[in-house]
Amino acid sequence: GAYQLQRGYKLPPLMFTDSEAIALTLGLLAIREFRFPVDVAAVEGALAKTERVMPERLLKQARGLQEAITFNVAPYPALLQNDFIAILSSAIQQQQQVILRYQSWSGEESERAFDAYGIVFNEGYWYTAGYCHLRQDLRTFRLDRVVALEPGEIFFERPADFEPLEHVLHSIVSMPGSEQIEVLLKTSLEHAQQLISPIMGTLETTEKGVIFRRSASQLEWIIPFLMTLDFPIFVLGPDALRERLRNMAAKALQMAEGEAG
């Protein structure tokens, strides 16, 4: 005869090695500071339970990590309901359709059946990408704009070649905007790729150089970014970007050469 413990049976406290204790403490601190969709009380409880099973030396090391480390999180992650990640993760694993109610940037709400293929955390925001049955096409949704989410009753087959991160980054770059930015970069594609991440825009090699493109509803942010690049740059469009550059250059000259008074 024999017996075995079922999954989930409560075992006595486990002991951690030095590396495991540091990894666990740092992980819990990062989850708390980056506002991952977990109750703060759950994180604090996990830290407290972890500390209770540590020997004195490891406990001092864990406390030292908490007191010494400061996280500079900018921009601060968007808040969302804690159970959305769990519902979506389960649906993705089981390839189960969800019913999603979404609020657009303009405040308009809509409901749709959605086949979630993956979840992406990018620069403070959570996204999900998959097939939207309302639009009958692939779509990307920001989870902090999801109003309601519940599992459906239909199952689907996830495409084997779908890359969630690649799709989300492309969706962000190609989002509709009032201005279409097009800039000529006098450098190689390899050098441009080292300085410009895929989240910033698309890069295309031409005979004259590398073309950087993206849409934007505001132009103020792109000028300081372009000024940091270490190669010649020429604005192809829009005219509004050229005008803002001229105004900023005039202001910079006034600040550098003018006198107070």
Question: What portion of residues is helical?
Answer: 25-40%
Largest sheet: 5 strands, antiparallel
In DSSP terms (H or I, runs of 4 or more residues), the helix count works out at: 8
What's the quaternary structure here? single chain
What does this 3D model show about the protein?
The protein is α+β, with helices and mostly antiparallel strands and 261 residues long. It is built from 8 helices and 9 strands. The chain has helices spanning 18-33, 40-52, 56-68, 82-94, 164-173, 189-195, 222-227, 239-257, and strands at 96-103, 109-122, 125-132, 137-142, 146-155, 179-185, 202-205, 210-216, 233-237. A 5-stranded antiparallel β-sheet has the order 4-3-2-1-5. The termini are far apart.
Task: Offer a concise description of the structure.
This protein is α+β, with helices and mostly antiparallel strands. It contains eight helices and nine strands.
Q: Could you outline the blueprint of secondary structure elements for this entry?
A:
Elements: H1 18-33, H2 40-52, H3 56-68, H4 82-94, E1 96-103, E2 109-122, E3 125-132, E4 137-142, E5 146-155, H5 164-173, E6 179-185, H6 189-195, E7 202-205, E8 210-216, H7 222-227, E9 233-237, H8 239-257
Antiparallel strand pairs: 1-2, 1-5, 2-3, 3-4, 6-8, 6-9, 7-8
Helix pairs in contact: 1-2, 1-3
List the main descriptive attributes of the protein structure presented here:
261 residues, alpha+beta, five-stranded antiparallel beta sheet, four-stranded antiparallel beta sheet, 9 strands, globular
